[in-house]
Amino acid sequence: MHATKIKMMPGCDSSSKLLEIDSIYIEGCENPGFFKKAVLHDFLKENPGTIQVKIWPYPNVIPATSSADEKYVRSSPNDYTHDNLLDLPRE
User: Fold this and answer.
1) Each residue's pLDDT tens digit, 37-68
2) Which runs of consecutive H residues, i.e. helices, occur in 35-89?
3) pLDDT at 82
4) What is the reported pLDDT for 77?
5) β-strand pairing of 61-65 with 33-36
6) Which H or E run includes 71?
7) What pLDDT digit, counting tens, does each position of 10-21 carry?
């Protein structure tokens, strides 16, 4: 499965903060569409390595938890200076 675009929280359209991602479009599954970050967090806890960001080098999407216990997702670290999820097209 691939993450192909993101929706930011209202008023955060140009944000570069992962916590301000509201939902992520997932394709390659039975019901492609936007999924809330907390739903993806829980799915990836049970199914690690099943979703990649559809931008080279196709890093895995992995679950993370903020210091305020907010569930979110991010991409596996690589040579980029910021998270690959934030480079996906925005809606």
Assistant:
1) 999 999 999 999 999 999 989 999 999 999 99
2) 37-46
3) 79
4) 76
5) unpaired
6) strand 71-75
7) 999 999 999 999
CA distances from 54 to 6, 11, 32, 57 (A): 12, 25, 14, 8
Residue 9 has phi, psi (to 5 degrees) of -65, 155
Amino acid, single-letter form, for residue 36: K
The CA distance from 23 to 46, in Å, is: 19
85: exposed, middle or buried (C-beta count within 10 Å: 0-12, 13-18, 19+)? buried
- Residue 70's φ and ψ, nearest 5 degrees, are -85, 130
Q: Where are the domains of the chain?
A: 2-87
pLDDT of residue 78: 67
Q: Is the whole model's pTM more than 0.85, yes or no?
A: yes
Instruction: Quote the tokens at residue 30.
Output: 């039975």
Query: Which residue shows structure tokens 């097209």?
Result: 89
Position 1, amino acid: M
